[in-house]
Amino acid sequence: MHPKxxxxxxxxxxxxxxxxxxxxxxxRCIKAAxxxxxxxxxLTDLDFALILMDVKMPNLNGFETAALIYxxxxxxxxxxxFITANTYGEENIFKGYRMGAVDYIYKPVNPDLMRxxxxxxxxxxxxxxxLVAQEQKLIAINKSLEQEIHERKASEERVKELNRQLMNxxxxxxxxNRDLDRFAFMASHDLQEPLRKxxxxxxxxxxxxxxxxxxxxxxxxTRIQNAAVRMQTLISDILAFSRINNEKDTFxxxxxxxxxxxxxxxxxxxxxxxxxxxxxAELPLIDVNPGLMRPLFANLxxxxxxxxxxxxxxxxxxxxxxxxxxxxxGVDEKFCRIYVQDNGIGFDPVYADQIxxxxxxxxxxxxxxxxxxxxxxxxxIVEKHNGFxxxxxxxxxxxxxxxSLPVHQPGAVAVNNTGEKEDAKVxx
Length: 428
Fold this sequence. Notes:
The protein is of the alpha/beta class and 428 residues long.
């Protein structure tokens, strides 16, 4: 930045002399030969760091020119140094200061003194410019902050409104789910009675009149009976799913071997009929809801036997291991992973997630019976335990279901190996 200085003197030699003194310091000097010319220059150019003005000039002297300059608000920031050959008394000197002068330089001019006085005022000018620039920058930053605060407040209000809408939607959804669960339970329960009558009367019809019916009629009755059985199975599964949704989250520290043995005993006839081999490694004690773990194991074992290869006896292996999972909050939690592996027909791994959807079946009814609810029940049970379930499979290469359950659940009650409650919780 090269500060500008307005030099005002009616003598050209004085103007040239002052310019020569100040030029080496890098100042830009604008010259005016009279007070009127100085005023004319200041009409269009306001950015002067300093005015050096002779007092004694024709028409308008320095004092009068200074008075006219400072009538304009935009020019009052420009300091004026009067240059004079006369030694005025204190009254005249005061008059000059009153007109706006900041200092006097007496003729003959001392170049060093002029440069020193000018340097002081130029330094003030530069500092003032920096302050003004800083002020403008701060004003811009403040406006930006105000805008940011305004936008943030608006965003917060939008987030609050979205949260309110979300909470309302959650409330409505929970209410709809409860109504749906009640409807499913009531509808399924009410369907049981007419279904039992269909099965009963079709059985009576077959037993009493089978000798009088031709093959087509017997085939129709058989289809009615099979359809009724499938319908009853579907209703039972829907009721089971509805009960799981309404099941309270109560956990006990339970021996999983006891639950697995109960399931194996229930499926013993089915296992023998299929010639299946089931190898179960020692399972741990963890916090579970035993009433939910039984249908979980039963569904996985039944599926492993059901989806076996033709003429190949099912082989099922069950084992477990412990692992540590880090939560989103950075907390390490101990999990138990239970593996159920079979040598069955498997499926394309692209369906690994879809297989847990309600009524999702990868095979037609004619090949494998089922309702498509079993694995959905399994997923719901695992989620009730704050865990997760996944599957690894390949076509014709078997499947492995992986159940991951927290070892400890809040508020769990301890029991012994016989299923009786204990006073203290069993620790792993």
